[in-house]
Amino acid sequence: MKPGIHPDYRTVVFHDTSADAYFKVGSTIKTDRTVELDGKTFPYITVEVSSESHPYYTGKQRVVDKEGSTARFNQRFGRFFTK
Question: Is the pTM of this model over 0.70?
Answer without folding.
Answer: no
